[in-house]
Design a protein that fits this description.
Blueprint lengths: L1 H8 L4 H13 L15 E3 L2 E3 L3 E3 L10 H6 L4 E7 L12 E4 L4 E4 L8 H10 L7 E5 L8 H12 L6 E4 L14 H15 L6 E5 L5 H14 L3 E4 L19 E4 L3 H15 L5 E4 L5 H10 L3 E4 L1 H6 L3 H15 L5 H4 L4
Parallel strand pairs: 3-4, 3-13, 4-7, 7-8, 8-9, 9-10, 10-12, 12-13
Antiparallel strand pairs: 1-2, 5-6, 6-11
């Protein structure tokens, strides 16, 4: 069905197509995926996942369709990024399909309807099954961006399955500076203190465009500060050889060309953390084989988004089926048994 619809969808500009997709999902007329193969069940930072394939942040910024995406077969869904105050984001156009490269460039700029609306929607789904996390951002004009993350965590920690602190988007000027040692140490201390006694896991999402020594610094601060895991990684500002006409657009690049850089970043994070923190791999994952490669490299779970633009929602089931087959081929009884050593 998606293969037939894709030419029509691609005639729309990317943001219009995305809004239409969300509207379709909000109808609730979403087929429920078959029950997951038991071999895919796993545990991540105390969260029981039916499978390790998650939806990355950016697709559902305002917590509109998490349950629809769970019905499509994702093992967990991450909504956001959400900022304390509503934010229009950067001027349009700001989202570009790089069809020849099976990639996407975005400079959205944390466009979202704000924390208050996200909280209302998280409250509305309390008691429903499924792992739904919230990805937090900072307002572009915030005087104290770390305070924005503290505000977001206090508002959502009792409602979300987990909270991600996104300090790696390239589309808010200066945001990635929060990955520097002094700034990150302060941020981690304040966020963990704000969590208090709540059991919600807190993850930090980092960029792929880091030096090897940066991973050591981030890992040490995260481990010592009480962070529960790292998401590796966000979009990249690097530009390898690309063939699409919009390849020179400013913004974060995701999709197939990100795969080597994201894998390299994961390997650096595995080395730096030494198994002390669970890692979620993201960036360029479009097949079961690539998901399996990230797990074998040391990721406990994976996330994807851009690949859905080109392959459609059926991709989730394909990845899970291939992943289960690869686990059995290599003699593993579970996802956890396959993590690392590859």
């Amino acid at each position: 069905m998606f293969d037939m619809l894709r030419p029509l969808i691609f005639r729309l500009d990317p943001e219009t197509a995305h809004r239409a997709t969300l509207a379709a999902l909000r109808t609730g007329l979403v087929p429920r995926a078959p029950a997951d193969d038991p071999i895919l069940a796993t545990r991540l930072a105390g969260l029981d996942l039916p499978n390790p394939v998650g939806l990355a942040a950016g697709f559902d910024k305002d917590v509109e369709v998490p349950d629809a995406m769970l019905r499509l077969g994702f093992g967990f869904v991450e909504c956001g990024s959400v900022t304390p105050r509503p934010q229009a984001g950067n001027p349009q156009p700001r989202l570009f399909r790089l069809v020849e490269d099976r990639a996407v460039i975005n400079r959205m700029g944390f466009n979202n309807r704000g924390l208050e609306q996200a909280v209302v929607r998280l409250q509305a789904r309390r008691g429903r099954p499924g792992i739904v996390g919230i990805n937090l951002g900072a307002n572009k004009d915030a005087d104290d961006r770390t305070a924005d993350y503290v505000t977001g965590l206090r508002a959502t920690a009792a409602l979300a399955s987990y909270v991600t602190v996104n300090i790696s988007s390239p589309n808010t000027p200066g945001l990635r500076a929060l990955q520097d040692e002094a700034a990150l140490t302060d941020l981690v201390a304040r966020v963990v203190a704000a969590r208090g006694q709540l059991a919600v896991p807190v993850f930090v999402k980092i960029a792929p465009d880091l030096e090897p020594a940066d991973f050591d610094t981030i890992a040490r601060i995260a481990i010592d500060g009480g962070i529960d895991g790292l998401i590796v990684s966000n979009t990249t500002i690097s530009r390898p050889t690309l063939h699409s006409r919009d390849a020179g657009e400013a913004g974060g690049r995701s999709g197939a060309p990100l795969q080597p850089l994201a894998m390299a970043a994961l390997r650096h994070a595995v080395r730096a953390t030494g198994g002390a923190l669970p890692l979620i791999a993201a960036g360029g994952i479009a097949t079961g084989a690539e998901a399996y490669a990230r797990i074998r490299a040391g990721a406990s779970a994976v996330q994807l988004y851009s690949a859905l633009v080109y392959a459609g929602p059926g991709l989730v089931q394909c990845i899970k089926a291939d992943l289960a087959a690869l686990l059995r081929r290599d003699g593993f009884a579970s996802v956890a048994a396959a993590v690392g050593g590859g």
